[in-house]
Specification:
The chain is α+β, with helices and mostly antiparallel strands. 48% of the residues lie in helices and 14% in strands. Helix 10 runs parallel beside helix 14 and helix 10 packs antiparallel against helix 17. It is globular, with a radius of gyration of 26 Å. The model has no long low-confidence stretch (mean pLDDT 95). It binds arginine (ARG) and aspartic acid.
């Protein structure tokens, strides 16, 4: 009887474990650890997170705010994605030394390339401080007062909690503000570029294959952390030395097979798993389509220029990849949410939530949450649409307008601040804009502007549209602006910004481009911004109470995990294929053979370097191949999102088996609704990474630094 019960429990855990979740590493003990072990994990929760002795978390820093990396040698060598290092690689690239196209390898440490503004951040310690943060809050009556008190407590604890002088405290809220954790962190600022394959490997398949399985991208790059003589964080200096980490990962060359346990540690950025159905349906019906439309138009223009001109291709490579990435994601997300009936599933959840509220006698507290949501999301709709068009067209995708907006903010500064603040901001702007104009091409932007301003005129909610943009002649307007505005070049912008505030403001207001952005920004900030903020604040408060209620009314086995918030998380699952469509099954592992199948000589996205073809033909895979084949990528049921790129995929023993970089097309809706049947994360196989470093690049210096665990039979 006992045995059967145990089996049953294991069975339940096994099936539930396929439901995703991103868990806090310091809180794995209990349900998560049991589940992980039932899936095959051989190490313990303490091996993953331990505040006092070295543990896996010490090998997993956040990479430059938006990605994840892992330490793979005792000399501070770190591994992350090619697309995470992309900006850096692009910055060091010129038409003559094109590291994007040709790759780069430092065959000795002196060749490693320093970077300005690149940092990695480790977590030293995590502590639950919810009680301290909520001290004195319950006694207050108004929402504004409560929030003010919480902010006060956060800044006090950030300032006063113990830490070393080179460390920082950070407080983050979880479960929409129902739990607060304190992170003690350490940021290293001397991070040097060590190596990257050519884009034909690191970005193989480019945008066509992005978000798609089966995948064959060798999406990795290498960096090294440098520290001062005391092994502490320091700004770049020739005297710095390779950082000696508390923990570095061993790499398993043993490989994986379907159903193997796997876990991913990393810094997922943002998910919205507990949105009400009203919000999800707005994303599907209104907001995603608007954003997709804008980016679709911008991308077509940029792509046309990039294919014709290699200098523009380098200039726009990183920007284009960024715009294209989320454009495609929103398309996949919208499709996936529809196909999986996410709205109906949420409605069903809401119905049973309402029943639970009634049953628990909590109507007074929680009974009106869903109707509040319904009202607020109805009220906010037009404002949200306007906000998305403004953000996408003005702030994100038309560079002249985005730059103009910064100048507009400079002018606004004068309404509240003194001349000195104006001068400081102006100096900062002038310095910052140098980098911007290096990658700016006015002809490209003029065509983008022409397309996007036409969309603005047609699609921006009429009641908020400035009169001058009604039925606009986009072609005439764009040629007028781009032939007259000074915002189109660095030298001319500097002319605009010369002199005291009075003369700068006068020059700005005589500039055609500036005049337009001012009209657009003025009307947006008057008619849309404040009302959006007002309703959004209500939604945030409702969401917090809703989350509190969900937590209160759920069972422990319901596996309620906090939405991603760029803090370190652990997700786990199994290597697994999936069934995207009727009669189609995708296997979980791809091989080099697939690269050769996709190969299109000279193609923009599917070219393959000759050296790689040679290695394929001679099957020169060293100890990294299996049965005459070279594994490239694999998928698993780990629940990941943007920010998890570069995250280590670990096996049951905590050894590195892969590098996370993407998700599958049919499962891109996992940020809002995770479906265990089709949501998969995509990883590049660690063996492929080793193979490229060793056999393709011949960088034995790097291989010699690594701790590689070979399968017994190959030793
Ligand atoms: N989709 C992946 C992520 O969200 C990879 C993006 C980089 N690749 C690209 N072709 N843009 O970051
Ligand atoms: N590619 C994403 C990243 O850069 C990962 C994802 O969205 O699955 O973090």
């Amino acid at each position: 009887m006992k045995y059967i019960k145990l089996l049953l429990l294991l069975f339940i855990l096994q099936t539930q474990a396929q439901q995703g979740g991103m868990w806090i590493p310091s809180l794995l003990k209990g349900m998560n650890e049991a589940e992980m072990k039932s899936l095959g994990m051989k190490i313990s929760a303490k091996d993953i997170y331990d505040a006092n002795t070295s543990s896996l978390k010490d090998a997993v820093p956040q990479f430059n705010g938006g990605c994840t990396a892992e330490v793979i040698s005792t000399k501070g060598l770190i591994l992350t994605n090619h697309h995470c290092g992309f900006d850096v690689i692009q910055n060091h690239s010129t038409v003559e030394h094109d590291y994007l196209r040709d790759g780069f390898w430092a065959y000795k440490m002196e060749d490693e390339i320093p970077n300005k503004d690149l940092e990695v951040t480790f977590i030293v310690k995590i502590e639950d401080i919810t009680i301290k943060i909520l001290e004195g809050v319950a006694a207050l009556t108004s929402e504004t007062e409560k929030q003010k008190k919480i902010q006060e407590n956060i800044s006090n604890l950030t300032k006063n909690s113990p830490k070393e002088s080179w460390q920082e405290n950070r407080v983050r809220n979880f479960y929409d503000g129902n739990q607060f954790l304190l992170f003690v962190i350490e940021s290293f600022k001397d991070v040097r570029f060590v190596g990257a394959p050519p884009s034909s490997i690191g970005k193989f398949g480019s945008d066509t294959d992005n978000w798609v399985w089966p995948r064959h991208t060798g999406d990795f790059s290498l960096f090294r952390i440098y520290a001062d003589k005391n092994n502490r964080p320091a700004a770049y200096s020739v005297d710095n030395v390779p950082y000696i980490p508390k923990k570095s990962l061993a790499i398993s060359a043993d490989g994986i097979k379907e159903n193997d346990f796997t876990m991913v540690l990393g810094y997922p950025g943002r998910t919205q798993e507990y949105l009400p159905s009203f919000a999800v349906s707005q994303i599907v019906e209104d907001l995603n389509p608007a954003k997709i439309e804008v980016r679709d138009a911008a991308l077509k223009v940029q792509d046309g220029f990039m294919r014709k001109d290699n200098a523009i291709k380098i200039q726009y490579a990183s920007k284009y990849a960024g715009i294209a990435n989320y454009w495609k994601k929103w398309i996949g997300e919208t499709k996936g949410l529809k196909k999986s009936n996410a709205v109906a599933i949420k409605q069903k959840f809401e119905k049973s939530f309402q029943e639970k509220v009634t049953k628990a006698g909590k109507q007074a507290e929680y009974g009106s949450l869903l109707s509040d949501f319904e009202k607020n999301y109805t009220d906010i709709k037009e404002y949200s649409i306007a906000r998305d068009y403004f953000t996408e067209i003005v702030l994100r995708n038309t560079e002249l307008l985005a730059t103009g907006y910064k100048l507009y903010q400079l002018e606004q500064l004068l309404t509240t601040k003194e001349e000195q603040a104006f001068t400081d901001r102006k100096t900062n702007l002038i310095n910052g804009l140098g980098d911007f104009y290096k990658d700016f091409n006015a002809s490209v932007d003029e065509k983008v502007f022409e397309q996007l301003i036409a969309i603005y005129s047609k699609k921006f909610p009429k009641q908020f549209l400035p009169a001058s943009l009604e039925n606009v002649n986009a072609a005439a307007l764009s040629s007028d602006i781009y032939s007259n505005s000074k915002i189109i070049s660095y030298d001319k912008v500097k002319e605009l910004l010369e002199g005291d505030s009075k003369s700068v403001i006068e020059k700005l207001n005589n500039d055609k481009g500036y005049q337009l952005i001012k009209v657009m920004a003025d009307s947006y900030l008057k008619n849309v911004g404040p009302k959006y903020d007002e309703i959004n604040l209500k939604n945030i408060a409702t969401q917090r109470t809703y989350m509190k209620a969900i937590l209160e009314l759920s069972l422990k086995s319901d596996r309620i995990f906090p939405d991603a918030n760029s803090t370190l998380r652990v997700t786990y699952g199994k290597v697994k294929g999936y069934k995207p469509n009727d009669a189609v099954y995708y296997e979980p592992i791809t091989y080099l053979d697939g690269i050769i199948e996709k190969y299109i000589p000279g193609d923009y996205e599917f070219d393959v370097p000759k050296k790689l073809i040679d290695l394929y033909n001679t099957k020169d895979y060293g100890l990294y191949g299996v049965k005459g084949k070279m594994p490239v990528c694999f998928i698993a049921t780990n629940h990941t999102t943007g920010g998890n790129s570069g995250s280590p995929a670990l096996d049951a023993n905590g050894n590195l088996i892969g590098l996370n970089f993407d998700r599958v097309w049919e499962g891109t809706m996992s940020d809002i609704y995770y479906s265990p049947e089709i949501c998969r994360n995509i990883m590049v196989d660690a063996r492929y990474v080793l193979f490229i470093i060793d056999k393709f690049a011949g960088a034995k210096n790097i291989i010699n630094e690594l701790k590689i665990i070979y399968p017994a039979i190959k030793k």
